[in-house]
Amino acid sequence: MQPLSADEMTAVRAEFPAFSVPNQTIFFDNAGGGQVLKRVADKVYEYLTTTSVQIGGSYATAKAGNARVLAARKAVAEFINAPDDTEVVMGGSTTSLVFLFIQALLPSIQSGDEIILTNTEHEANVGAWKRLQAAGAIIKTWELNPTTQHLELATLDKLLSPRTKWVAMTHASNVLGTVNPVKAVADRVHAVGGRLSVDAVAYAPHRLVDVQASGADIYVFSFYKVFGPHYAVMWGHRDLLVSLANLNHEFIAPDDVPYKLQPGNVNYELVHGVSAIPEYFAAMGTRLGAPATASARARMQFAYDRFDAHERFLSERLLTYLRGERKVRVLGMPHVAMTPEDGLYRERIATISFVVDGVASPAIVQHMDSVNIGVRFGNFYAVHLVGPLAMAKHGGAVRVSMAHYNTAEEVDRLIAELRTLIA
């Protein structure tokens, strides 16, 4: 768990304008939204000031704008390892993309089809799916083991049946921080003839997405969690996307994907801005020591691996303190990685939630506000975890969500402030 060096951290933080602001907040609310790269803001500005036209025209500026949008889609495809950039659907947010997907899926749902959801999800990956009940779908819930706080595969096996149409789950919990074994889930779901949809909003800032390796049939996350603009992406196998109902104008062809699933088309300037995210990770891969001859995706992976090691270092630093406080209960794994009783090795991302006996979570956050440390409390829209994790009596959980640009000094300052509250 080797952290980034001082020089490397300086290079990273120089990419984010927010860190040049005097007396800036310490950002530990990154699961709510990451800081935005200058590269992203520059590209949004570039599009709006040089190619702000409706694409599709034959004149030079329209062609240039169209080229930027298509180039960005190809860049996103490489970023997520999609085999075909026409499988990349973009829209306003993960929530909106999931709702659009469910609308397009609705005509294929028959009475008695079974949908399995987990009780660890952000509501974005629950509410839309439940609307399929209107078409006769049966909703089942895959509940975490309240003792281990894991989604266990043995529990899923009991829920799967030949009627299983879809399973929808998070790749990493935005409260527990646990990285879920989505490939093992995909194998089980596909074995009974079902399909898997994965919400990677909490996962994508911390691990390089590989939609093919995930085994998922649908995969979605938001770019503003990955240091970009308020925009999102949904990937799906082309044959699946073609089979979905058209959400666009009635004359759009069934195989015209992703356009038929992007009503009103994409936001051109945000799409162009998004293309700077993979550029950043590839550039940082080179800066951090990736071979100059490596592919762009290999350099991205190198950067993510270095950032992951840094985040593990920060996480274990905070977890070590929290484990030592008898009044503190960490939600999710108390270590950055472990093998629990079910024998399945698991890791956690740098999102750490906890509650403190005798100290209300809102009071902790109010104190942190007063010393300019940005953390949050609540259920974080994972409302179905409130009961199993006994959060309500604490006023919700305190969540510290770190990113690769956070420093050990920032973590130490947080710990010092926590010591004043937890005695």
From TrEMBL:
Keywords: Aminotransferase, Transferase. It comes from the Eukaryota. Transmembrane segments: none annotated. One of its GO terms (molecular function) is transaminase activity. The keyword Transferase applies. InterPro entries: Aminotrans_V_dom, Cys_dSase-rel, PyrdxlP-dep_Trfase, PyrdxlP-dep_Trfase_major, PyrdxlP-dep_Trfase_small. Residues 26-414 form the Aminotransferase class V domain. This is Aminotransferase. It comes from Achlya hypogyna.
